[in-house]
Amino acid sequence: MIRLEDLSKRYGSFVALDGLNLEVRPGETLALLGPNGAGKSTTIKALVGLLRPSRGRALVGGVDVWKDPVRAKAQFGYVPDRPYLYGKLSGLELLRFAAGIYRLPRAQAEARIEELLVQFRLERFASSLIETYSHGMRQKLSLAMSLLHAPPALILDEPMVGLDPHATRLVKDLLREYSKNGRAVLYATHQLHLAEQVADRVALVHRGRLLALGSPKELLHQHGSSDLEEFFLRLTEDASESASVLA
Ligand SMILES: Nc1ncnc2c1ncn2[C@@H]1O[C@H](COP(=O)(O)OP(=O)(O)OP(=O)(O)O)[C@@H](O)[C@H]1O
Questions:
Q1: pLDDT by residue (tens digit) across 188-230?
Q2: Residue nearest to atom 29 of ligand 1 (CA)
Q3: How does pLDDT run across 134-164, given as a tens digit for each residue?
Q4: 2-82+155-246 in CATH: which number?
Q5: Distances (CA, A) of 204 to 43, 155, 231
Q6: Does residue 148's CB lie within 6 angstroms of at least one atom of ligand 1?
Q7: What is the rounded end-to-end Cα distance, in angstroms, of the chain?
Q8: Does residue 31 surpass a pLDDT of 80?
Q9: Which residue's CA lies nearest to atom 4 of ligand 1?
Q10: Which residue from 73, 109, 75, 74 is spatially nearest to 92, judged by alpha carbons?
Q11: Range 100-121 average pLDDT
Q12: Which helix (H) or strand (E) element contains residue 171?
């Protein structure tokens, strides 16, 4: 469903992403893990069409994101780590605007918006300006917007940061449920317990390369680790060593 082929990104002479190959299969939720600066956001931005890769391809639902961006963008919903939402619109206005971009028929859009406002417990605030929303409310609105067109794939960068326990549970359930019925979810996170609880497979990237890939259970078994934290720290140890040299 989501496919990265030899995906690479250079910033001048610095290689941020170095030939990443990765697939998120239909029905699968995959967590992208890695230390600060590993290349997670670069991967996600190259995948959703925000950052042109220096080499390689990104495909969603078989459509090349860079060759056929309009058709590809109909295949996925995207939630950035820091969503920019225009503050002078109400939540309802923003959702209607986004539904227009996705060309949803009016009646279908209204029904879908209503459903999402209820799901994300935003009904009471639907007519309030987004500039009055808290961080968590903006995050939920951004999620609702990404789901408007019921896309086959959902791509999220740090979906849980700053959410209260209610919203955390809501998003966890969503990530778990969404990939059922043949859809796919890819999210980047630093929250290892999230990956442990809500990922069929985990991809660990480090210095722009794929270091390990498998189900949490497989990875712990292969590397003789007791939990994902120990696994993560052990495999990316040289990252913290170089960080302490810089400090
Ligand atoms: N515009 C840019 N110009 C130069 N280097 C960049 C640029 N954007 C990112 N980088 C570098 O690319 C590398 C990967 O960055 P990226 O943001 O993808 O990491 P990340 O895994 O998302 O990190 P974090 O967990 O800290 O968000 C980092 O070394 C970063 O400094």
A1: 999 999 999 999 999 999 999 999 999 999 999 998 888 999 9
A2: 37
A3: 989 999 999 999 999 999 999 999 988 888 8
A4: 3.40.50.300
A5: 12, 16, 10
A6: no
A7: 41
A8: yes
A9: 11
A10: 109
A11: 95
A12: helix 165-178
> How is residue 177 written in tokens?
């449920």
Distance 219 CA to ligand 1 centre (A): 25
Tell me how far the alpha carbon of residue 38 lies from the centroid of ligand 1, in angstroms.
7
Any idea how long the chain is?
A: 247
The residue assigned the tokens 């497979």 is 201
ipTM, interface predicted TM-score of the complex: 0.96
How distant, in Å, are the alpha carbons of 50, 79, 123, 147 from that of 91?
24, 16, 9, 14
Q: Which of 42, 51, 157, when mutated, tests ligand 1's pocket best, judged by the most ligand atoms within 8 Å of its CB?
A: 42
**Could you write out the DSSP letters of every residue in 62-93?**
TEETTTSHHHHHTTEEEE-SS----TTSBHHH
Mean pLDDT of 63-89: 94
One-letter amino acid of 152:
P
**How far is C-alpha 234 from the geometric centre of its chain's CA atoms?**
25
